Amino acid sequence: MKSARQTTSEVENVDQENRLNQLCINTIRMLAVDAVEKARSGHPGMPMEAADIGYALWTRFLKHNPANPQWPNRDRFVLSAGHGSMLLYALLHLTGYEVSLEDIRQFRQWDSITAGHPEYGLTPGVETTAGPLGQGFSNAVGMAIAQEYLGQYFNRPGYPLVDYYIYALVSDGDMMEGIASEAASMAGHLGLGRLIYVYLDNRITIEGGTDLTFTEDVGLRFQAYGWHVQKVDGYDLSQITTAITAAQAETDSPSLIIARTHIGYGSPNKQDNASAHGEPMGAEEVKLVRERFNWPETQFHVPEETLAHFQTCKERGRELEAEWTRLLDAYAKEYPDLGRQWNECHEGKWPEGWEEALPRFTPDDGPIATRSASGKVLEAVAPGLIGLLGGSADLAPSNKTFVKGLGVIKTDPCGRNIHFGIREHAMGGILNGMALSPGLVPYGGTFLVFADYMRPAIRLAALMKLRVIYVFTHDSVAVGEDGPTHQPVEQIASLRAIPNLVVLRPADANETAVAWQLALNRQEGPSALILSRQKLPIIDRTGFASAEGLHRGAYILAEAPQGTPEALILATGSEIHIALAAYEKLVRQGVAVRVVSMPSWEVFEAQEADYREEVLPAKVKARIAVEAAVPMGWERYVGLEGRVIGIERFGTSAPGAVVLEKFGFTPETVAAAVVEMLGTS
Fold this sequence. Notes:
It contains 25 helices and 20 strands. The protein is an alpha/beta fold. The radius of gyration is 29 Å and the shape is elongated. The strands form 5 sheets. The chain has a 6-stranded parallel sheet with strand order 10-9-11-12-14-13, with helices on both faces. A 5-stranded parallel sheet has the order 1-2-3-7-6, sandwiched between helices. The protein folds into 3 domains: 2-317, Thiamin diphosphate (ThDP)-binding fold, Pyr/PP domains (Rossmann fold); 358-536, Thiamin diphosphate (ThDP)-binding fold, Pyr/PP domains (Rossmann fold); 552-680, 3-Layer(aba) Sandwich (Rossmann fold). The chain is 43% helix and 12% strand.
């Protein structure tokens, strides 16, 4: 009899637990439905389909502290399918982050922290601005690489300071994007065992069923990449829990959990329908959904017992972080040097005096390509900067981005060189994920013309203000024989068009060293170094201004001997040397000309107005800009009366020096243009 009573009690407890679970899951769903309906805009289908998975992950597995979203050892959660943002906002609100119910009511509105897609730095608990599909997928791979490196560097026996997991929710759209394929291939190759993705296999896209375009076996594809693959029912909490537990136990491979789900789950007329993807349900359908889930008519209803259950995450999170903080304190006492490095790293600081290692070059060193000078800078400073790591998209011998003696990540203990393979798309997204780990400044190299492959990720790095450094070499038509497909013409202008990206095109080895210094010290966004393939003379700074002028974006490199210039020559990169040769010709002719080196428009624009006027006096109308690229943008500096010697077409295949000459990049052409301008002004 007693045993029977116990059995009845156990059944009642299970029923109560199941009822509470379902109530919590439906709370997530209905918050999303109400927010989208109120905004008259958004994507209700995905939060409705994935609520069970989000609930299980956030309440049973995710190691996080809502009171401190930046706790270093928290698990990361990436919503790669960012259009389903209300799933994340609902989870953040319910588990106790500073996302209020009023914030959810203001979904997609002006000045709201609940934007249409989650934005890093705007909303507490949002780990990345995933934006376009596939970017979040690749960001999470970067986060896992960062975890791997930081764990190898800092962890010691008994002190697992860095042991977090990276979870991501991905969609059919993510799986179709090429960047995700590249990133998945790399993750499998590296065996990133703390990377766990749940794939929402709902088989619906905006245009209809995935069978229109996407009929491959995703599981087999990921198995071929080297991933651990499982399949579950996306509405069976037991299956979901078992699968995530198994994924955690798989330490040598990333994991993909394929969850069969239904977009718009619970909607009588929208479930499994493309219309559930990107538009509100409509008042009549919302009414039917409420009936389906036995939900009150009150909008944004959150049952008290649901909120109480979700917010147990707050106390658990405080305990987890407190336990970890005690571990860190003990670690710092036993390993004081590592403890100091940990603090420096997580405060985003470089070791004091690191800049003393920057190399300095003299004309006696002979001509050197700025890509090679960049490599020498890396060789000099990288060993002392533990947060600096990166590599190239299979072009390290050309980009000079491999640092000898620092090992290769995953292959060597604490290795910092990364072989990205021929995967520029993924490299861009992975760099962003790495930069989202405090203290890490990743760099990635490729040819400038291939920056186009990375543009979406570069844009997102600028949007998130991430400290990423791009090493773009082979910067002009001087690439030569490879021809127009490999000769960048429009890329510099294209990169300058991205807000908050600092573009640096140094003229010689010393400007290159200063450009690296500026990029490494920059805290508020990414930097792009634009470097030459061909050798360039090292400017004799005893006769011309110091390369330190690069810190101000543009500076007077060569002043008119007469003191007051009547003409200005503006140039960047390799064209500075053409400008200087033209300057010498003009000075011999008695022309009062000034040469301005303008390696960074963005940095120059940030200077005070008096300095900008000093460098580019408004009264001097005779101005010529010289750059082996499209002229777009230079008009802001040369004005309507000025001239740009640039390139208005694609390049051509011939030796680099010949191409430059044929396009008019010669001292004679520049000097003649100045004389002509002064004669007609």
